[in-house]
Amino acid sequence: MKRYTCCFTGHRDLKREELPIIGQKIERAILKCLELGIYRFENGMALGFDILAALHVLRLQEFHPEIELHLMIPCRDQCRKWTSRQELIYRDILARATSVTYLSNTYYDGCMRVRNYRMVDDSCACICCYDKARARGSGTAQTVRYAEKSGLLILNCLPDPDGNTNRSYFDL
Fold first, then answer.
1. Sign of CA dihedral 89, 92, 93, 99
2. Burial of residue 153 (number of CB atoms within 10 Å: 0-12, 13-18, 19+)
């Protein structure tokens, strides 16, 4: 399955003005994966980029029924501190996913890293939203570094650092 699987990782604190551009980049990256024969997408369902990416996978699934969304949830109580609106979106995505895997019943220190590494180990590509300048020491930085070391194709959905909103890092 590894050669058909792509994982997601990204920042939780996305800027509101970047959301439409990042959404477009996510869809372009998913379509690029489909061109490469990658149709299985693993998502850890963290707030921010993961939720946004899952929604775009589900949207594209309407046009590409071969797309699968597999959720890798670090713990069953992941959304315990979320707002009711965030939890509603989370539950809707869970109901529409191809599969849901829970790695633990409750939160414990390190469960997010275990989830992230498992998704990388399952994948041949990684669609990310990663800004090195603001992510030092973050789970996203750790996951992208692990994905790079593991030889995954990295598709970064942040807008071009030179300000060209029509290009992503993976276009460079």
1. positive
2. middle
DSSP string, 64-89: -TT-EEEEEES-TTTTTTS-HHHHHH
Q: What is the CATH number of domain 2-171?
A: 3.40.50.450
| pLDDT, tens digit, 9 for 90 and up, residues 53-86 | 999 999 999 999 999 999 999 999 999 999 999 9
How many other C-beta atoms are found inside a 10 Å radius of the C-beta of residue 158? Answer: 21
33-45 pLDDT, tens digit each? 999 999 999 999 9
- For the chain, the structural domain boundaries read 2-171
Residue carrying the six token digits 């800004």 = 131
pLDDT band at 158 (very low <50, low <70, confident <90, very high): confident
Q: How far apart are CA 4 and CA 39, in angstroms?
A: 6
Q: How many residues does the chain have?
A: 172
3-state class of 40 per DSSP?
A: strand
